[in-house]
Amino acid sequence: MYFNNILCVSSREMTDGIVTYANYKKLVARQKIDVVKRGGGEDNPSLIRWDNMPDRLKEAYVEKFGDPKATERYAAFTSLVEPDYEAERFFAEYTFDDGSHLSPEAQTKYTANARILNAAVRSQNWRKPYIKALGGTVGVNAYISQAVNAIRNDERFAHTLPESERRLADKIAEYRRVGYACIVSGYHKNRNAGKVLTGDQESTLRMLLGSYRNLDNEQITMLYNTMAAKMEWKTIGASTVDNYRRKWDLFTYGLNAGETAFNNNRQMLVKRSAPSAGMMYWTADGWDVELLYQKTSIDKNGHRVTTYHNRLTVVLVLDPSVKYPIGYAIGDHENAALIREAFRNAMRHTRELFGKMYRPAQIQTDHYGRGTLQSFYEAASTKYYTPARVKNAKSKVVEPYFKRLNHDYCQMEMPNWAGYGIKSKSQPNPDYLDKIKHNFPDEDGCRAQIEYIIACERRAKLQDYMTAFNALPEAQRHELSEADYLYHLGESTARTIRLQPMGICPTISGIQYYFDCFDTRFRQYNYLDWTVKYDPADMDRILVAGDDDRVRFVCERKHVQPMALGDRTDGDSEELARVRQYNRDLKEMVMDRNQEDYDRVRSLMEEVGKDEVMLTKVLLTDSQGRHKDRRNQARLTGSARKALAAAMEKEAVEAEREQQRESEDYLNRRVNFADFLQ
Fold first, then answer.
1. Environment class of 59 (CB within 10 Å of its CB; exposed 0-12, middle 13-18, buried 19+)
2. Out of 165, 302, 346, 580, which residue is the most buried by the measure of CB atoms under 10 Å away?
């Protein structure tokens, strides 16, 4: 710029990568540079004379900012170059057909070009002032071209517009018609365009890429080029196939890997948070534990054969609030019985933790055995049973939990660890495993290892889980009674059973059991066939249900009394007294019911009088020799007759009971049959 007709550069430019501010101060003090105007603040820098500035500084300045003499000549043009925030937004949001964006470098370059084109358009719009300013010696388009080229290397105006005056004029004309879009180069617009152009060609290549045979690039190239020769298409190379393989991965991945892989790896997944409190949500799954054990069996030839590749399966119930293993069951393989036992174990464990059994509000499992287990799952939860989508392992937090147990316990502590999986690179040395296989535990030892793992997990997370349970509001805690537990979650005997004098005596797994119920109502239903519901892990109590399941009783295992008094131990006397008290209560209930029935019938008889009784017992005619008429007049209606018949039957029962010594005093206090018969 000029100051008092002196060509100057600013101190801000000099300290912007040419000299340091300290060196600049030294140059001024030594009068190596001539300051013709003192600055004052950020927006008013000092001005330095250009002509007498050292050559090395001039060269550095020209390299960075361009020749100030040339730049100054086109100051009228550069004064029109202004920031364009709309261009910045346009190029930042610009997308191609495949959804990709411009690189940050391209966005910066295209925004700078837009600023220069804006200045060029303004210059053309103000043609007359420019012609006057230039003295009519050069055309406006020529001036614009010269200015654009003069500031090309100036960092403040750096751009990549055409150097040719004609091509620049064409670009300006296109910019007027199209706008920002014309600035994007053909390279970027067509950067993904290759030799495959038509829809037929693309479809052919995509079908080859998506083949279930998972062909490699060379095989696809050969097949495509065979088709191209017949269709007169351009041939392609393996590198082109590889580019399209990456570009069309979304469309071909499912065809290559299957629907399950597509669902798990290409579809949008839901991000879920852990339950805010314990007992809100349980999830369960089976785990083939990566621990080997040895097993000896007899083959068909009668030889003893020991195998060392055997593994156990655990069905584990997990509360994800703190990833606490609330229940588990160990078996040879996953099946419905093992799943039910895992949930029963979970319910029993809630009683160990909280003093009562509780059910969770929600249960999620996979679809294994859903047809036979759905009612079981619905009974085990209080509100929701939500099975995971088929083959959607990522929806279950229990899967990564198994992986962590395998890593933290099996791999670290168990010498019989079998590895992570067939595809995993982290595997134990098979040769060493073969050497130590004779030291593998048997099945019981392997079970003990698994129980140890779960015990460690429970111990480590116990306090956190108790805190999580306490966070559950009281209204959301759903207690599970012992009767409901056995009825909904227990196993059932295949056959029904009748009440015997010794109680309920089922045979379960080849063992004879004896149960009885201390509820006095139980023996009123001795005519029913009972279905027995039981927990195989706790045979101290069972539940019996009648034919229509509306009548249910919890029975407890009978206490076995020793015959010899000398064999008695603590508790025997108390249990014997408990049985005797029950029998007294039962007999009292029966007598009370009989007395109630007798009193009711006696009241009925007093209402109708005693004529009917006498006429039915003594055949006395009236003065006309007729008996039936008199009897029929006194005959009661149907309901009364039935009541009378019942009363007479009760009389017979009571008379028989009078012969029993232990009830004689009781009846004498309440009934005087002599008064009634008179």
1. exposed
2. 346
Q: What is the DSSP string of 338-388?
A: HHHHHHHHHHHHHHHHHSS-EE-SEEE--STTHHHHHHHHHHHSSSEE-PP
Q: What pLDDT digit, counting tens, does each position of 50-61 carry?
A: 888 888 888 888
**Category of 145 on φ-ψ map: left (φ > 0), alpha (ψ -120 to 50) or beta:** alpha
Q: Tell me the C-alpha distance between 373 and 533, whole Å.
A: 16
Nearest residue to 88 (alpha-carbon basis) of 102, 107, 105, 115:
107
d(CA 36, CA 213): 80
Question: How far, in Å, CA of 645 to CA of 635, rounded?
Answer: 12
- Relative to beta strand 304-310, strand 324-331 is unpaired
In 134-265, which residue ranges form alpha helices assigned H by DSSP? 140-150, 165-178, 186-189, 199-209, 217-231, 238-247, 249-257, 259-265
Half-sphere exposure of 507 (CA within 13 A, CB side): 2
Cα gap 473→211, rounded to integer Å: 55
| Dihedral sign (CA 160, 162, 168, 172) | negative
pLDDT given for residue 187 in this prediction: 61
In 3D space, the residue among 114, 131, 133 whose CA is nearest the CA of residue 73 turns out to be 133
Distance between CA 592 and CA 520 in Å, rounded? 13
Torsion region of 641: left, alpha or beta (phi above 0 gives left; psi -120 to 50 gives alpha): alpha
Q: How far apart are CA 198 and CA 227, in angstroms?
A: 14
d(CA 236, CA 244): 11
* Residue 218 · residue 237 · CB < 8 Å: no
**Whether 358 contacts 279, CB under 8 Å:** yes
663 band by pLDDT with thresholds 50, 70 and 90: very low
